[in-house]
Design brief:
binds adenosine-5'-diphosphate, Ribosomal Protein S8, Chain: A, domain 1, single chain, 3 domains, Ribosomal Protein S5, domain 2, 624 residues, alpha+beta, five-stranded mixed beta sheet, 35% helix, binds magnesium ion
Length: 624
């Protein structure tokens, strides 16, 4: 048999590699922004058209490229950032793989203009699907401008796979925020379809956070500072009263690189323990500095995950630092944040900075091991109890696993949502609900309602029941073209994050059909003057944020129709939650409304809203 193995042409190899590095417009944004930072720029602009599908342009005033470098930059494994394998363990740049530009050029039409200081003329290169179409001298500003047009123009399957514009722009804004937040010494601006989305001046980390999330953030931030041999921490956590129902504002940066790490996330949550209810998530913006030798950022192609050599100590240090910060700011006066006897983490003060660190951290020390506690240090017995239950890693891990299970369960639930299943019930067996009286409606565990049927008992899940009722109402509103609006006595001005404001713009017709009445005011504020009549006096901002959050989740994970998605998202956001105590009248209305629904027995995803306890079965179980 003749030889059959051949080397792939570069263009094909690059296209394959691109699949890994560039998944969507936001990935290209991240690579270009990071290159601009590595080039020493102090002013960087991002220009987006059509959610990055038509254009992604990044302009920087960094050191630019020579003519040869400009051409070489598109070659795979061409990088100026590392020379040998050892350099991998001592990285101080964002990039190092030399794949991003080669990948982008394989799947888009790219125009590069770049000039180094001292040269009169710069270089312009146009490259399409890895083919250089044009290379010439040009006059341009010092620095570099990359324009990426028609991403995935030659990979239709990928292009079709892109999500709707609101979802893609949300990803782009997220990447922009992650990069801009931690580089407060660089000015960043972003434009979307000609509108300014961000204009961030140089300043402190606090000013940058405020620039991104709005003026009101200022009062919410509690500084966190800690300096140990293993890691130094600098940044902020949000005061507990501003905690969110969604995991939005949670940022870890390691050596100025955004990372995700559920284990360290747990450390922050753990420090907030007792201050937040189960469904709240703390905001945090924490910059960690760690000796690059002690981390490995090379395990994920898009580099948001990293490995730490000493993860457990870092966990304990973060947890202690956040606890101390909350305690110091009198947010948790009863919290136990005394120096833990052998695990000594000093606070960093300006005068300390000149001293060589004297604190040695015992790497084998387990801060959660049972230990003697200095007398008088605990003032809250609850805290004491809870702390005990966390005093070993086993129980800590079981909590952690629970968190992960929650996430998994959530994912599974979402996957299940993909097919809209009709519940498996048979009309003949449909239980007959007797009109209720005070004796026959009982709330159980502030979660379920027990109702009596002719043929037994019915247990109703209050949250799901209300979600079903609202879902049908909103679907009806869309069918009629308009929901019923209750005008607010005092219109409310609500500030949203930039990403949410963009989404509201995109969905404004539909949101109004749900029954909201609002007008845009300023860049990301809206004046809400009317709400769907079902909402009554609930917190409007929370409801809208919940609606958007659900919508985004459904949009990126499921393929629901827009109306269905909005109806179920709004229903989920506005429904009565479990944990709410209901009066008899409230229960009665809820149950009556449920049974006038078209499909009272389940949610659109097939999950039951009610279960029945058959009288015969009950009798049998009691051995009658
Ligand atoms: P990496 O960043 O991993 O080195 P890239 O493919 O992103 O790989 O970039 C290749 C090379 O092109 C970089 O190493 C750098 O020398 C050069 N380069 C890319 N973008 C810029 C820029 N904005 N300014 C100056 N040089 C750049
Ligand atoms: Mg790069």
């Amino acid at each position: 048999m003749s030889d059959i193995i051949k080397l792939l042409p570069d263009a094909v190899a690059n296209q394959i590699a691109a699949g890994e590095v560039i998944q969507r417009p936001a990935s290209a944004v991240k690579e270009l922004l990071e290159n601009a930072i590595d080039a020493g720029a102090d002013t960087i602009s991002l220009i987006i058209k059509d959610a990055g599908k038509a254009l992604i342009q990044v302009v920087d005033n960094g050191f630019g490229m020579s003519e040869t470098d400009a051409r070489l930059s598109f070659e795979r494994h061409a990088t100026s950032k590392i020379k040998s394998a050892e350099d991998l363990f001592n990285l101080d740049t964002k990039g190092f793989r030399g794949e991003a530009l080669a990948s982008i050029a394989a799947i888009a039409q790219v125009e590069l203009k770049t000039r180094v200081e001292g040269n009169d003329l710069g270089t312009q290169i146009i490259i399409e699907g890895s083919q250089v179409k044009e290379q010439e001298l040009c006059s341009c500003a010092k620095g570099t401008s990359f324009s990426i047009k028609n991403l995935f123009f030659n990979v239709p399957a990928r292009r079709n796979f892109l999500k709707s514009n609101p979802v893609e722009i949300k990803h782009i804004i997220e990447e922009f925020q992650r990069v801009a937040m931690v580089h407060a010494d660089i000015s960043f601006s972003m434009y979307n379809n000609g509108n300014e989305v961000f204009n961030l001046n140089k300043g402190s980390f606090r000013q940058r956070i405020i620039g991104i999330f709005g003026e009101k953030t200022n009062q919410k931030l509690v500084p966190v500072e800690e300096n140990t041999d293993i890691v130094s921490i600098d940044g902020f956590v949000g005061k507990p009263e501003f905690a969110k129902k969604t995991r939005g504002e949670q940022y870890f940066f390691v050596n100025d690189r955004f990372i995700k790490n559920s284990y360290l996330n747990h450390a922050v949550n753990n420090a907030f323990d007792q201050l937040l209810s189960k469904d709240q998530h703390p905001s945090y913006f924490l910059k960690l500095k760690i000796d690059p030798v002690k981390i490995d950022i090379n395990i994920h192609p898009t580099k948001t995950e990293i490995k730490f050599e000493d993860e457990r100590s870092i966990y304990a240090i973060i947890r202690t630092a956040v606890k101390q910060a909350l305690g110091k700011h009198n947010i948790a006066p009863t919290l136990d944040f005394e120096q833990e006897s052998t695990f000594n983490v000093p606070l960093m003060r300006s005068t300390d900075s000149i001293k060589a660190p004297t604190i040695k951290v015992n790497k084998d020390y387990n801060p959660f091991e049972t230990k003697t506690v200095s007398p008088g240090s605990r003032t809250s017995s609850d805290w004491n109890k809870d702390k005990k239950s966390k005093e070993n890693w086993d129980s800590l891990y079981s909590d952690f696993e629970k968190d992960t299970n929650d996430i998994l369960e959530h994912q599974i639930e979402n996957e299940e949502n993909q097919q809209v299943i009709s519940p498996d019930w048979n009309a003949e067996e449909t239980p007959v609900y007797e009109k209720a009286d005070k004796q026959t409606l009982i709330q159980l565990h502030t979660k379920f309602i027990l109702a009596q049927l002719k043929s037994g008992s019915l247990i109703i899940d209050q949250e799901r029941a209300h979600t079903r009722i609202l879902f049908e109402t909103y679907i009806q509103n869309f069918a009629n073209g308009q929901g019923v609006t209750q005008q607010l006595l005092f219109p409310e001005t609500i500030d949203f994050t930039t990403a949410d404001a963009e989404l509201i713009n995109e969905l404004q017709v539909e949101i109004k059909q749900l029954g909201f009445d609002f007008e845009k005011m300023g860049k990301s504020s809206f004046v809400v003057s009317g709400v769907p009549v079902e909402l009554k006096e609930q917190n409007v901002k929370k409801i809208i944020e919940g609606l958007l959050e659900q919508f985004k989740m459904n949009e990126s994970e499921l393929k629901l129709k827009r109306h269905e998605n909005l109806a179920i998202s709004m229903a989920r956001s506005a429904s009565i939650k479990s944990g709410k105590k209901l009066s008899y009248e409230e229960m009665k209305v809820l149950v009556d409304e449920l049974f006038s629904c078209e499909m009272p027995y389940s949610l659109p995803n097939g999950k039951p809203t009610t279960i029945t306890l058959n009288l015969e079965d009950l009798n049998q179980q009691f051995d009658y």
